[in-house]
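Lecture 7 notes: from sequence to structure.

We start with a single chain of 356 residues. Read the sequence below before looking at the structure.
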Amino acid sequence: MNAARGRVLDLFAGPGGWSEGLRALGLQDVGIEIDLAVCATRTAAGHPTIRADVAAYPTTALRGKVSGLKGSPPCQTFSAAGLRAGNDDLPLCHQALDDLAHGNDTRATLREACTDPRSLLVVEPLRYALDLRPEWIALEEVPAVLPLFEHTARHLSAAGYSTWTGILNAADFGLAQTRRRAFLIASRTRPALPPERTHADGGTPDNLFGDGLPPWRTMGDVLGCPPGIVHTRGNHTTGGSRFPTTGPSWAITGRARSWLLKVGNRPAATRRRLDQPAPTLLFGNARKDVSWIDPDGSPVRRISVVEAAALQGFPAHYPWAGSRTKQFQQIGNAVPPPLATAVLGALVPARQEVAA
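Now the structure, written as C-alpha cells:
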C-alpha cells in the first residue's frame, strides 16, 4: 500500500477534537463513533463519520487502507470525575492487551468479568493497530490510563514502532486550560517524540538559542472583548452591558472582570481568575458545577456552551448538536484541537494525502 494515499482513522471519534486538529494541518480523517448526537455534531462540522461500535467493528475491510490511527477511548471508568470502576478492571485490561498481542482475542470473556464493561474499550486501539499496521498512531486518555498506554507501547515496539508515552498539559500548547492528559505516540517511519511546547507557565526569556516562550494563555485572552462592541442600551451613555459581536459573547463589565470560574461543588473546588487559564473542564453529569462566581464566592451564572467550547479550543461557531447537557459532555470529552494539532504536527508526514 502507498501509505500516503491511506485513510486516517479516528476511533471513538467524539465531536471532532482530533479531527479539527488534523484539519488545521490541511488533512481529513474518517471517524468511528456510536453516539447519535456526537455523530450529528461531526457531520455538521464536515468530518466524515461511520456510526458504529468501535469494539464490534470488523477490521478486515480496512487492511491496507489505513495510514494513520488516532483516538480517545471513553474515559468515564478511569476519570477522577467518575466512579473509577476502571481501577478495579486494570488487571483485566492488561491481560486483554497481552492476549491481543499474542493473537488471542479474549475481549468477550474479559468484558463479562469487568466491573464496568467500558473499561475494556481502552484495548481497542491495539487491536486496530496490530490488524491494520498504520504508519503512525496517536492516542489520548486521562492520566490514570498511562500504565495501560505504556503496556500498549511495549507491544507496539515489539511490532516495529518507535513509541513515546507521557503526560501533556494543554496549556503548554496554547490552550487557556491546564488540562493534563496521557498520550501515546507511535511511528513506523520516524522517531516518536512529544511535541515541543509553544507556551510556558510565566513564559521563558530569550536566549542565545532563540526566542523565549510566551506565557500560558488566560481565560481573559480567549473570552475577552474583541473588536466590534454592542451596547445593550443602544446609544444611551449610561447603564447596560457591552459585549462582542463575534466570538464568545458574555457581559464584559467591570464587575465581570472580577469573576472566577469554579469547577466542582465542594468547599475546596478549584477556582481560577480570568487572568489565569481555566482548570480542566469536567462536565459529565455535573454541568451545574462549572460556574462563574464573584470574588466572595457568590454564584453569578453557569458557564455557557460557547464559553466552554472556546476554552476547549474549538471555533466560536462550532455546530454542537444534541441537548444542552449533551453539548457540554461532548466539549468536556473532546481532545482540545490546538493540542491535537501539536501532537499530530510532530507525527504526521507533511501534507499527507488522505482519501475521503
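Confidence is low (pLDDT under 50) at residues 225-247, 352-356. Keep this in mind for problem set 3.
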